[in-house]
Design brief:
With 495 residues, this protein is α/β, with parallel strands linked by helices. The protein has three domains: 233 residues, MetI-like fold (Orthogonal Bundle), CATH 1.10.3720.10; 126 residues, Periplasmic binding protein-like II (D-Maltodextrin-Binding Protein, domain 2, 3-Layer(aba) Sandwich); 103 residues, Periplasmic binding protein-like II (D-Maltodextrin-Binding Protein, domain 2, 3-Layer(aba) Sandwich). Helix content is 53%, strand content 13%. It is built from 17 helices and 13 strands. The radius of gyration is 27 Å and the shape is elongated.
């Protein structure tokens, strides 16, 4: 692994520690309070209150029922309101905390019920108030159970933080997805797994030791240092000059944009910050909400569909390239060899799903409803003579499934990592494909000079040359004129 990747691994590890520590602190503190209330309002306890207990218990059960990835997406408006952004590690802390509060509340409640009722009755008979019973008797006596429960909560949050990284939350999860999974980089995947395992083992060891020794001081000291570290990280001064945040898909485009970053700085003194995403929904949502300033990842049909469906105030300001989609196979050499009831994998996002279906229709394998347009779905198939079994998968998963399916519609983002080339396609989109990628900004920003300069960077010879290096021999088709003389820029498409 290169020194650069080791640096990225170290930075991602700190981001994970930052997220997990703050969310653990908040969730354990709030969850303990909620657990205490559930305990003291339970039947036969000091402040028995059936309505309060059942209401809070129901809320806790609902919170524990929602899968974290769904909760994280659902909380985006609340996250945006609280921290001012829906992406990044600070944004990830909100859903991490909310998902862990009910989890630890139940653990705390169960731990508190382990105390001997005779001990509680004895304290009350000696004149102790309810607060004194909780803080002087119940919590100290159940400390080992609470410590073990807190350990489980922290470990659970380490796992959730990795999932948060898959949707723009930063940390080791984002590193594993962006640099490992999307780029078929096994060493990066293994390195992140090793770091996560070490973190979990360390947390488990510390938790067991604290539960056994019944001591809080080491945790207080460690927490103090971590709070100082988190504060320094959060308040560390950033570059005073203007930073333009541009969202792209993780993978080749993230590397290509490094050239754009250099060009923007050297020619226009613009600092580009590249924000990688791993799905096709978040970049437009992030742009519309102001979390990023522009995005370069989508085709025109996808943009139009997103604007209509979500009422986004965003629009394209320039075309970039057409990246032809193709039908690939590890099992057959020509479409004549395609068996009946063949399994065909297509992407799951609306634009590429419709695009793949049109490609299947171009190959005369299916027929779609007349006038279905560019955003068709499998429900729009009116004739399927080969009885194709169409499976809808994540775009990044499809190249990995080539050995398990008969035919797959693969987007160009993953060709190089999967050792595929456009010439390997059994069917390739034609050169006049309507699926041109575009530079997109907020509608109120279309007139700004800085974005016109961004377009000039994207249309520069250096950027084109870098793009065609990653997508050679028809992998990328230039969609604008007057690009000048660029060597090795063959754009012929094999049909």
């Amino acid at each position: 692994m290169s020194h650069l990747m080791l640096s990225e691994l170290g930075y991602a590890t700190w981001q994970t520690i930052y997220m997990v520590f703050i969310s653990s602190f908040l969730s354990i503190f709030l969850g303990l309070g909620l657990g205490v209330v559930l305990f003291i309002t339970a039947q036969g306890q000091m402040l028995q209150n059936r309505m309060v207990n059942k209401t809070l218990g129901g809320i806790v059960n609902v919170g524990r029922s929602i899968p974290f990835i769904i909760l994280m997406v659902s909380l985006i408006p609340i996250t945006k309101f609280i921290v001012g952004s829906s992406i990044g590690i600070n944004a990830a802390i909100v859903p991490l905390t909310i998902t862990a509060i009910p989890f630890f509340a139940r653990i705390a409640e169960s731990g508190l019920f382990e105390i001997s009722q005779e001990l509680v009755d004895a304290a009350i008979s000696m004149g102790a108030s309810s607060m004194q019973v909780i803080y002087k008797v119940v919590l100290p006596e159940t400390f080992p159970s609470l410590a073990r429960g807190a350990t489980l909560t922290v470990i659970d949050l380490i796992g959730c933080s990795a999932m948060a990284g898959a949707v723009g939350g930063g940390g080791l999860g984002e590193l594993a997805i962006n640099y490992g999974y999307y780029r078929f980089n096994i060493p990066v995947m293994l390195a992140t797994i090793v770091v996560l395992v070490v973190m979990v083992q360390l947390v488990q060891w510390i938790g067991n030791w604290i539960a056994k020794k019944r001591v809080l001081m080491p945790i207080i000291i460690l927490s103090t240092f971590l709070w100082i570290g988190c504060g320094v990280y959060a308040l560390w001064p950033t570059q005073a000059s203007q930073v333009l945040k541009v969202g792209v898909m993780a993978g080749p485009m993230e590397n290509i944009m490094k050239v754009a970053k250099q060009q923007a700085k050297s020619k226009y003194n613009i600092n580009l910050k590249i924000i990688p995403f791993t799905d096709y929904v978040l970049p437009n949502r992030a742009l519309n909400s102001g979390d990023i300033d522009a995005n370069i990842f989508q085709t025109i049909p996808f943009l139009e569909q997103a604007v209509i469906k979500h009422h986004y105030n965003i629009q394209s300001i320039a075309k970039t390239f057409v990246y032809p989609m193709g039908l690939y196979s590890h099992k057959i050499k020509t479409l004549k060899d395609l068996p009946n009831k063949a399994i065909v994998a297509i992407p799951n996002d609306p634009s590429n799903e419709g695009r793949a279906l049109l490609l299947l229709q171009q190959a005369h394998l299916i027929k779609l409803k007349p006038g279905v347009g560019l955003l068709g779905t499998p429900r729009d198939i009116i004739n399927n003579p080969e009885n194709l079994d169409i499976r809808i998968l994540n775009s990044a998963q499809i190249p990995r499934a080539l050995d398990d399916v008969d035919l797959a519609a693969v987007t160009n983002d993953f060709l190089k990592s999967a050792n595929l080339k456009p010439k390997d396609a059994l069917v390739l989109e034609k050169a006049n494909s309507p699926y041109a990628n575009v530079v997109v900004v907020k509608s109120s920003d279309t007139h700004k000079t800085v974005f016109k300069k961004l377009v000039q960077v994207i249309h520069s010879k250096a950027f084109v040359k870098e793009t065609l290096k990653y997508f050679p021999k028809g992998g990328a088709i230039i969609t604008w004129k007057d690009i000048g003389n660029i060597p090795n820029t063959s754009v012929n498409v094999s049909l």
